[in-house]
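User: Hey, quick favor. My workstation is busy. Could you predict this chain's structure for me?
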Amino acid sequence: MLILSEKEVAATVDMEEAISAVEKAFLELEEGSAQQPPRTVMEISECKGSILFMPSYLREGSVVLAKIVSIYGENVKRGLPTLHSAIILCDPETGEIRCLMNGNYVTAIRTGAGSGVATKYLARKDSEVCGIIGAGAQAWTQLWAVLTVSKVNHVKVYDIVREKAVEFAKRAMERFEITAEATDSAEEASRNVGILVTATTSRVPVLRGEWLAPGTHINSIGWMGAGSRELDSETVARAKVVVDNREAVLSEICDFTTPIAEGKITENHIYAELGEIIAGKKLGRTGEEEITLWKSVGQSIQDAAVAKIVYLKALKKGLGTDIEL
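Assistant: No problem, here it is.
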């Protein structure tokens, strides 16, 4: 069995190939050649954390995966990452465990890649300004993905800790050769942008629908367990909503369960799953004035698609440590 550290995983895959792999995985799920049982979520309420167990199988991709991920929003106060994860890859033919890898980088890049695919189909092609609320590790791969599929050349970023937003903007300018600025409020980061990313651990809405200009596309990826919410009801009600998984969004995400309970929307307000759009069963953006919303819970098929790339490249590069289990 091959063991791969986070550093070794990060040396194997870039965003462009991750986006391509994740798009194929969503298509495979839509066409029925993938299996993804509902993930199990266990709340550790006294510690304000959640543990997720996520299996999947991509027949065309020839990969079986099991992932365990912990999400602890309070870790921000401890100076620790909010997310920790590990991934096991099995041989689809024999069931043998082939690889155990740190899952943090895979989780970050596959989440970014999912938003990259959604942005490709839902954002206006002339979008040049991207707003970001939340300047953590997930926001970085979100920006990377947006820049991979769009013409964005300026970024406005807000974080409750201003120093994080300032550092994020500085890093973005150095890494991507774009202009970037830290804003003083979430409202300032949200107004007059073509693409808006929300990547927070918030339990109260950080985005208000009244701030959104016609034509805005939103990538919302924040999810920190029961009670978490980063979008107000007006945002969801105004938007054409595309999700990664209807069942998961409607059962786990307060961004949707709350406006449904308020009578602001119904379950039918979800327009499509992303796989339906990729497969051509439904259209993506159909007008320049549409507000579109991609809500991602995160799917194990995304992990499987990216982890397979990591494993094959690690073998080719001679990375990792082989052990007898």
